Amino acid sequence: MKTKLIASVLILSIAISGCQTKSVDYSRDDEGSKSVPNVIIIFADDLGYGDLSCYGHPTIITPQLDKMAFEGQKWTNFYVAASVCTPSRAGLLTGRYPLRSGMCSDKNRVLFPNSVGGIPEKEITLAEQLKKGGYVTAAIGKWHLGHQKKFLPINNGFDSYFGIPYSNDMDYNRPEGVSKHETFWNAKPEYFNVPLLMNEDEIERPANQNTLTKRYNEAAIKFIKENKEHPFFLYLAHSLPHVPLFAAEEHLGKSKRGLFGDVVQEIDYGVGQIIETLKETGLDKNTLVVFTSDNGPWLWYEDHGGSAGLLHDGKGTTWEGGMRVPAIFWWPGKIKPAVIDEMGSTLDLFNVCSKLANLDLPEDRIMDGFDLCPVLFDLEQSPRKNMFYYRGTTIYAARQGAYKLHYITETWYTKDDNKIIHENPLLFNVEVDPSEKYNIADQFPEVVKSIDNMVKQHKAEVIQVKDQLAERTKDKQ
Ligand code: MG
What we know:
Blueprint: E1 3-4, H1 9-20, E2 38-44, H2 63-71, E3 73-79, H3 85-94, H4 126-131, E4 136-141, E5 160-163, H5 180-185, E6 196-198, E7 201-204, H6 212-226, E8 232-237, H7 259-280, E9 287-293, H8 320-323, E10 327-330, E11 338-345, H9 349-356, H10 373-378, E12 386-391, E13 394-400, E14 403-409, E15 420-429, H11 445-460
Parallel strand pairs: 2-8, 2-9, 3-11, 4-5, 4-8
Antiparallel strand pairs: 1-11, 3-10, 5-6, 6-7, 9-10, 12-13, 13-14, 14-15
C-alpha cells in the first residue's frame, strides 16, 4: 500500500508489527476490557484542502491540528458526500449518499430559513445508531439538516444541542446604506439574524458570531468533562470559516493570512483545548477524534474564502477542490501514525463508529460507507475504491482507483453559465494529476468504459425519494 510512514524507525516497527498481528475487536482497550471508545467528530465549514499548515498552507499556522496529524493519520484522498453544506452533512450523519435520503436537490442546493423539509424520520443518524450502544450524544454548532422542531438534533438522536440551525450568512439583514460588500467584508453579527439554539429553544438572536467558536469549544469541553464516565459521541460542527467571518478578539490580527487565517487559527486553538481536556481526564486513551470539513473553499469570497491548495476549483463544484477535504484521525496508542493516500470519505464514519461501538449496520437500506478500521489500526489498504461526485441529484463525475471521469463540469458562483456536458467525458489520473489538468480519455478507453459501467450499476440501485430541499415558503429568504 502506498502509505508514507512519518519519520522514525520506531514508528515503522510498530506499524509493521501492527500489520502482522491484526486486532479484530478494535474497541477493546489495552487491558482487554469491553469498553467502547468515545468519538469526537470536529467538522469545519468551508475549510479547503489547502487551509491548514499540515496540508501546506504557508501562513495559516495550525500547530494543534498539525500535531494531531503527526501523532495520528493525515488522509490526502478523503472526500465529502457533496460539495455544499446540507447534503454533505446528511451524508456524514447517515452514511448514505444524500440522494437516498432526499437531502439534495436540483432546485435548492441547501436548506434555507424558509425551507419546509429536513432529514426524514426514517433515516438513522450516526447519533441514533450510537444511542443503541448506550452512548451519550451531543451536537454543538451548525446543524443545517432542517430547522423545524422535528428535524433538530435532539429529535434525531442527540441528547443535547447548542448551535445555529443553518448557515451563518442566512437571515441576511442588510441595513439601509450598507453595501453588500461591506456586510460580508466588514461583517457585524446584526447583519445576519441567525438564531442560537439550546436544544429546541432560541436563546439569542442574532447570535453573537464573534464568540461562537469560543462558546462551541467551551460547551464541548464541558460535555467531555461531564460525561467522562460514559461512552460519548460529540459532533462539533463549527459554523466557520464559512463567510461571514468572525473571530474572538484575542484571535484577531494573529495570522498573516488575514481574518480568514485568524478564524482557522481560533478553530485550531479550540482543537488544542479539546485534546488537552482529553489528556487531563485520561480519555485520550479511549477516544477517537476526527477532524474534517464539509466541503471545499468558497472561492467567490476571494480572501474571505479559503484555498483548495493544488486542487482545482472549490465549494459547489465536483472538481477535486469542491469535495476533497483535509481529514485527520487521532487516537494515541491505537491509530498507526501515517500519511494515508488511500481513499476515504465522511460516508465511512458511520461504519467506522459502528464497528468501534460493536454495533451492526442497518440491514434494511443501502449503506454507502466502508469500514476504514483496517487502515486506521493496521495500515492495510482502504476498502474504498470509488467515489461518486453528485451535484444535486446528478452524477457529474466518478472516481475509480486513480482515475476520475467527468461527465459534466461546472463551476459555481460565477455570473457566466459555464456548465459543459461532455459528449466525450474527461478522464484524469488524480494520483498523478491531482489538479485535473491533463485529459487522458483518448489514451485509456478501457478505463472510461470501466468507470461508465460502475456509474450505470450505481444508478440502477438508487431509488429516488422525496426532495426535502425543494419546498420553501414565501417568507423572506
Ligand atoms: Mg460548507
